[in-house]
């Protein structure tokens, strides 16, 4: 559910485009569900539908992994799970720290989905001295005074920021100085980081605003369709209103309308 983009070139060093990397978790989620149902093989069409991705795009993505499937049989589910997990670096354990243990930080700490995907919550950090030592999700909260030591002792390279916006940059700077090179930022602010540090931003309110935009557009299309139905006949009303074909209009979106959670 990450909004925004990593501060990295569009293509990774091994030649896998960033957009492909962003779709790998979607394939993995669909494949894991198949694996849990003991499904041995899957066609590109089935997997694409389960992942919500176009099948030609899926085949292209898998070609970067050197995985081409077997004609008439499809892809081996277990092998693909392994291959994608390895590509995403999920075959190793990633210790993660969460900074800012308020409503959101505590909810994240309690989220079981991190551990099951190889992300171990190594420490919880907060600036409020009253919280120090209190357990959240069974882990005692530690004070920010110890942030650098905690990062070093646990070999942490991924930090999650769930502080108020005003504190986020300072927390980010301390995390980076202490050795963190990947940050998941929930605070509603843009973070500045040096080269070599990846930041992904999550903002549910932005997701809702994008949905609101589409709702508004749908409502507009319905109104246009009602008024245009009489004189335009079979032409899709929205396309007619915009002077475009139906196919063209389907691809258009507002500036910055980048699906954050499921990159296209
Ligand atoms: N991205 C999203 O979709 C989303 C959703 C909800 C909240 N948020 C954001 O997440 C952040 C936290 O929200 P919340 O509701 O949990 O707030 P909260 O007030 O409940 O918790 C914030 C916590 O951060 C701690 N804190 C403050 N300054 C700190 C610092 N310098 N170092 C370490 N800890 C510090 C506070 O002591 C507090 O425990 C806010 O920025 C909020 O806007 C984002």
Automatic annotation (TrEMBL):
Keywords in alphabetical order: Cytoplasm, DNA-binding, NAD, Repressor, Transcription, Transcription regulation
Biased composition range(s): Low complexity: 234-247
Record flagged with keyword Ubl conjugation: no
Region (Disordered): 233-264
Similarity field: Belongs to the transcriptional regulatory Rex family.
Subunit structure: Homodimer.
Name of the protein: Redox-sensing transcriptional repressor Rex
Organism: Streptomyces camelliae
């Amino acid at each position: 559910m990450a909004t925004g983009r990593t501060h990295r070139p569009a293509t990774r060093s091994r030649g896998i485009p960033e957009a492909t990397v962003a779709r790998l978790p979607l394939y993995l989620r669909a494949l894991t569900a198949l694996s849990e149902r003991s499904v041995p093989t899957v066609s590109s069409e089935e997997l694409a539908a389960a992942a919500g991705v176009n099948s030609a795009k899926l085949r292209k993505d898998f070609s970067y992994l050197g995985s081409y499937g077997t004609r008439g049989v499809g892809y081996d589910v277990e092998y693909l799970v392994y291959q994608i997990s390895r590509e995403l670096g999920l075959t190793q354990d990633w210790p993660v720290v969460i900074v800012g243990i308020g409503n959101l930080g505590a909810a994240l700490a309690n989220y079981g989905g991190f551990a099951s995907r190889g992300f171990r919550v190594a420490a919880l950090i907060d600036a409020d001295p009253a919280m120090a030592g209190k357990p959240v999700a069974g882990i005692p909260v530690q004070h920010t005074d110890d942030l650098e030591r905690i990062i070093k002792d646990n070999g942490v390279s991924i930090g999650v920021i769930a502080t108020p916006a005003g504190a986020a940059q300072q927390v980010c700077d301390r995390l980076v100085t202490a050795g963190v090179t990947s940050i998941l930022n929930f605070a509603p602010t843009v973070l500045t980081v040096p080269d070599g540090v990846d930041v992904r931003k999550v903002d549910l309110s932005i997701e809702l605003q994008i949905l609101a935009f589409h709702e508004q557009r749908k409502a507009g299309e319905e109104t246009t369709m009602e008024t245009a139905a009489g004189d335009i006949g079979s032409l899709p009303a929205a396309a007619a209103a915009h002077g475009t074909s139906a196919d063209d209009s389907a691809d258009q979106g507002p500036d910055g309308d980048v699906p954050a959670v499921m990159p296209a």
